[in-house]
Design goal:
Keywords: ATP-binding, GTP-binding, Nucleotide-binding. By secondary structure, this protein is α/β, with parallel strands linked by helices. The protein folds into 2 domains: about 160 residues, P-loop containing nucleotide triphosphate hydrolases (Rossmann fold, 3-Layer(aba) Sandwich); about 120 residues, no CATH class. It is about 40% helix and about 20% strand. It has 11 helices and 9 strands. Helix 3 links the parallel strand 2 and strand 3. It is elongated. It starts with a helix and ends in a 13-residue tail after the last strand. The C terminus is likely disordered.
Length: about 300
């Protein structure tokens, strides 16, 4: 492990009100950062001391905005102190936008600018620009969000800060039984009840799709093989589009009647097909539920 690997990554997210700090914080949460909103700059050194003592958190993102304006004169001094600390790699991200775009966003949300509670919106924007000038000059990354959608801002942050050794996007493949209800967190649902049912094979009835005999029975059917090839290709083809749209995870649910045999075997194979491309978890929601009825699975 290198010296850089031992450092705690600190990202300070700041910038103009309405420029996208909330979207940025959500992006860093998806990137695995421990995020705190509206951290007073004077508390950062004490907070950092607690982190160093714990040794458990290595990536932190702090949002510092005009809600902390009483402390803004301290932020640059605090960051200089942090940068001189060997255990910290600190960077400021400053989000900006044109006056026209900021006015438009405030008009759309009908919110008041924090520095224009009793005055014109432009007065608040101008005052904020002046107050934030030292922080903007100190920023390592300045992003103009005037022409960026929230998704595009997320993509830019992902491209700059994601850890290539740990991809952001991951896939959850889940088997389930329709008789127990649809999984409410599924993004894609597939029904494999058209496949021959191992429930009617006496020696397979009490097993499930995790057993080799059941898996071989289900996947050994030519219809299952043909369907797998087509369905797998479709899933692989559409994954890049989900990633492009800003998805950080996708749940693929595969169901049969009781979630014991066919769906379990099929989920296993679909999950295995993705393991060389994305982090994948395969779970079986109903595979081990006690059979309370004689309904076929």
């Amino acid at each position: 492990m290198t010296e850089a690997d031992n450092k705690i990554e600190l990202v300070i997210i700041s910038g103009m009100s309405g420029a996208g700090k909330t979207v940025a914080m959500q992006a860093f949460e998806d990137l695995g950062y421990f995020c705190i909103d509206n951290m007073p700059p004077a508390l950062i050194p004490k907070f950092w001391e607690l982190l160093e003592n714990s040794g458990k958190i290595k990536k932190v993102a702090l949002v510092v905005d005009m809600r902390s304006r009483a402390f803004y004169d301290q932020i640059v001094d605090v960051l200089h102190e942090m940068e001189n600390t060997e255990s910290v790699h600190a960077r400021i991200i400053f989000l900006d936008a044109t006056d026209t775009e900021l006015v438009s966003r405030y008009k759309e949300t009908r919110r008041s600018h924090p520095l224009a509670m009793e005055g014109r919106l432009m007065d608040g924007i101008n005052k904020e620009r002046e107050l934030l000038k030292p922080l903007r000059n100190h920023a390592a990354v300045i992003i103009d969000t005037s022409n960026l959608s929230p998704r595009e801002l997320r993509e830019e942050l992902f491209a700059s800060f994601k850890n290539e050794k740990k991809p952001v996007f991951h896939i959850e493949v889940m088997s389930f039984g329709f008789k127990y209800g649809l999984p409410i967190d599924a993004d894609i649902v597939m029904d494999v009840r058209f496949l021959p049912n191992p429930y009617y094979i006496p020696e397979l009835k009490e097993k499930n799709g995790e057993d080799k005999a059941v898996y071989d029975y289900v996947m050994g059917n030519p219809m299952a093989e043909n369907f797998y090839q087509q369905y797998s290709k479709m899933l692989h083809d559409i994954m890049p589009a989900y990633i492009k749209e800003g998805k950080t995870s996708l749940t693929i649910a595969i169901g049969c009647t009781g979630g014991q045999h066919r769906s379990v075997a099929f989920a296993r194979r679909i999950g295995n097909s993705f393991k060389n491309e994305y982090p994948v978890d395969v779970t079986h929601r109903d595979a081990h539920k006690r059979k309370e009825t004689v309904n076929r699975s």
